[in-house]
Structure formats: structure tokens, C-alpha cells
Amino acid sequence: MTGIEDRLRDALAAKAGSVRDDGRPRVLPPPHSRPAAMNRRTPRSRLAAMNRRTPRSRLAAFRWWAPLAVAATLVLVVAISFATTRAVTPPTPHPAQRPTPYVGPLAPPVEQVWPDAVHEIPATAPGKRAFKPDVFISPRVVAGRGLTRNRPDSIWSYDVDKRRFTRITTLTSRYITNEPVVFGDGQVAWTVLRDRKLEIWAVPVTGGAPRRLAAVTATITSDNEIIGARNLTIADGTVWWSPAEGGVYRLPLKGGTPTLITGTRGFHLLEWPWAGEPRDDRSVDHPIPRPMEHLKNVRTGETRDATPPSGRTSWKDCGVTWCLSGVETWRRDGTGLRALPGQAVGDLYSGRYVMLRQRDATGGGAAAVHDLATGRTGTLFRIPTRRGDKASPTLHAQQGMFWYRTERGTQVLIRLLP
């Protein structure tokens, strides 16, 4: 039996199986007779003549082709029947409609929304060195690095009420990384990369000589780039961090040997005491579209998984409590879905803040900061949207703080409230 015949047999059997038999006899229609007019117009002698004029090869060809024509016709019917069957199946549900980008009034100035969070401070520390703010060590005092010829050489604090700098320590190594200085338990800490080693240093915030707490083998990429610690944190008298390949390590502030926390391989410190996986690692060829989907509390072992709202499958970032896409936000458990008042730029900061790009109906634009917990939004500065518009300053975003330089030779700090 040929392939076509097999297909015909299966198709016809399937069609027969779909017909309901009620047991009633059916009357076959009478066979179609040849039209009388044709018989009158075509005498038998003429038909015989036509047969004589038709070569035997053409007749044989016709006898060979005719069954195939019938088979092809039946295959076409089967194909149409199959297509019809597919057409009546329930359609695949479409994903939920995405909200359109925000176009509306620009947010009020950030100093009106959070007046106690905005500070304007000098851009230079004593000795005409540049001051790069890193972390608030109290609501009114910020610590950061002093730079000479773009190289960090000291750590300073600045009191926004007394408007005064205080030197915390002088750096003894010029190989300090670009990661910000961190604060906790009365200590400030930072990292150094030297001789393919990651060194962790600390000093009391009240001042003193810096101490090297430990030196461990650093992560080296295929491009021979040395990667330091990520999300360095001080808590419970201990320094915590994650290397590029994952895992959460601990080191006592008094020094010693770093140890890997059991069960944290593949996790990355997110927000103390929570670590998450997977993370959106830009050092790989295909960034993971759902960062920090799984969380683990390194203190208690508690775990939490992120659940997106219905119809949402990709996320821009997810913290301990909040998640967001480009124009929406929701809680980690999938509840509380709402539109953002602008386009999200960057990741979550301090677990609840996001930088937004806003547009109004006239085409004007602004950079703003939005608090996911309270829904409040404040404009940082206007951004150019037309030719001839004034260029906006460079915004620096990090955990706990946004800041930018002004044309007056100062810098504006926005402390992200805990």
C-alpha cells in the first residue's frame, strides 16, 4: 500500500469514527445519468471516431493519472478537514496587555518630597582633593574617599550640619577598588585588589590606622579581569560578601580566615541578611532575565521565592520585598501590581527605591526617584528632550544614596531613607 493510500485510509477511518451512528437506514441517492442532450448531440459513430483519434499512449496515460487525481483530491479534502478541526480548537490565551509608558505631570522637586534627605555639600575635601561620597554613617554625616589625581588616598567624613570635614584614615594601598566604602558596627570597610588577591580592610569610624583583615584569592575572568567582592556588608561584628562566582562568605571584624556559609553556593548577598539566586551577571553571554528569583536568609535558613503577577514572565529586578519591570512594580509574592509613574532606569536601591525617567504631555522630561513602599516620587533634575536643551548632570546611584555634581562646584546627595 502506498503512502498516499495509507494517509487516505487513516483519514477516512478517523472521519468515519467521528460520525455518530443512530441505527437508522439511509437511502442512497440514485446514480447520476448522462444528460440526454449530450447523448443526442454525440452519436455513437462520433464517439467511436474520437476513440480512433486518441492514441493508445494518451489513453494509458489517462488511466495512470486518473487514480492519482482522485487521490490528490481526497488528500486535499483531508487537509482542509484537518485545518478546519484546528481552527475550532480553543485559541491560545494572549499575554496580559502591558501598560503604556507614563506620560503625565512631572513629579515635584525631591527636596519638597523628602526635605530631610537632600543635602548640598562641597565637592572637595581639605588639601584640594576631590571628595567622593560613599555611605551615610548617620542621618547627618556622610563618609567617602578623598582622591588626588583620581586616586583614592584617604577616607573622610562630612557633617552636613556643622559643614565640616574630618579625616578618618589615610589609605596605605593605592590598589583600592572602585567599590564604595561601607559602614556598620562603628567600622568602615573597603576592598583592595593586589597580586591577584582580594584584601579586606577596616578602620573605626572614629579614626585610626587601617587594618587588613584577610586576603583571599580573587576571581579572574576569561579576559584576565580581576573581580573583587560584591555587596560588602558589616553586621553582627562580621564582614560579609559574595565573590563573582557566588556564595556568601563571613569574616570576623577582628580578622581571621574567611568561611563559606553552608548552603549558599550559587547565592549572592543581596540585602543583609538575605542572599539570592540567580543574579543578572553581565559577565556571561546571556544575562538571566529573572534575577534574584530565590532568596535565602543566611541567619535563619528561611527561603522565599518570587511569584510574578498573572501574565508577567520577565522582571527587571527583584529585592526582598519588591519587584519591578520597566513600567510596573509588584510585591515579591505577586500582589500589589501597579504602573510606575515613569520608565525604570537601573535596579532597585536600598530594597525599595528606583530611578525613573519621566515625560509630560509637552515633551519635557525629568529624572526622578520613586519610593515603591510609599508611592512617593520626587524630581532630581530636568533632562534634555529637545535640541538646545541644557545637558543634565551625571547621576551616581548606589545603595543608600543618589548624588550628582552641580555647576556651582558642589554636589547634591539624596539619602535613601531606610
Keywords:
4-stranded antiparallel sheet, single chain, 5-stranded antiparallel sheet, 38% strand, alpha+beta, 16% helix
Structural account:
The chain is 16% helix and 38% strand. The protein has 418 residues and is an alpha+beta fold. Helix 1 crosses helix 4 (56-87). The longest helix is centred in the N-terminal third of the chain and has 32 residues, at 56-87. The N and C termini lie far apart (78 Å).
Strand order, sheet with most strands? 2-3-4-5-6
Detail the poorly predicted runs. 14-97
The biggest beta sheet reads: 5 strands, antiparallel
Give the rounded overall mean pLDDT: 79
Structural class: alpha+beta
Number of helices: 5
Beta content comes to 35-45%
Determine the fraction of residues in helical runs and give it as a percent range: 10-25%
Shape: globular
Q: Give me the Rg, rounded.
A: 37 Å
How far apart are the termini?
Answer: 78 Å
How many β strands by DSSP? 31
Provide a short characterization of the protein structure.
It is built from five helices and 31 strands. It is an alpha+beta fold and 418 residues long. A five-stranded antiparallel sheet has the order 2-3-4-5-6, with no helix packed on it.
